[in-house]
Amino acid sequence: xxxxxxxxxxxxHETDSSPAESTASHPPRKSTAQQKVPRLSARGLTVALVLxxxxxxxxxxxxxxxxxQVYEGKLNASAxxxxxxxxxxxxxxxxxxxxWSGGELILHNNSEDDWSHLxxxxxxxxxxHDIQPIPAGESKRYKLEKFLxxxxxxxKLQYNQLKTVRVYARLPGGNRATFSHEFETVPEG
Length: 189
Fold this sequence. Notes:
The protein is α+β, with helices and mostly antiparallel strands. 27% of the residues lie in helices and 24% in strands.
């Protein structure tokens, strides 16, 4: 065969090849948009991840350092309870105790400021909200049976001793203040 015949056969063979074969030998062309997209190297990715970790950390530390201290005021108050069962009531197991109705918590506002928007918690779980203010120098009574947990369970003296009370109130200037008190308890049977 002559040289021209071999060249012609080679050109025919190249034109007859399938598209799959041509893409295997030549990668597909990228669009201009793909060509303009920046590429991130391994080092660039590492730097980006380190910055994504350090920037929020330093931001939180800066906020912690430069924010002013929060002061939670103290209420000038006292708390008493009436109508509680005697100490020997709690000696038997709770399921053997008879039902006990009554019992009141009395809050005394000993300050010169009125309190409003009260949140009163008993034993850390039971609470009541009262938007009616307690004027300065006055007291207010709350029935213990009106205190509820978040799930709706009522405070019952048959099952619970009155152990603690915590009061959150708003003062006339808009600041919040708290008061806490612990009552004497007896060991339960």
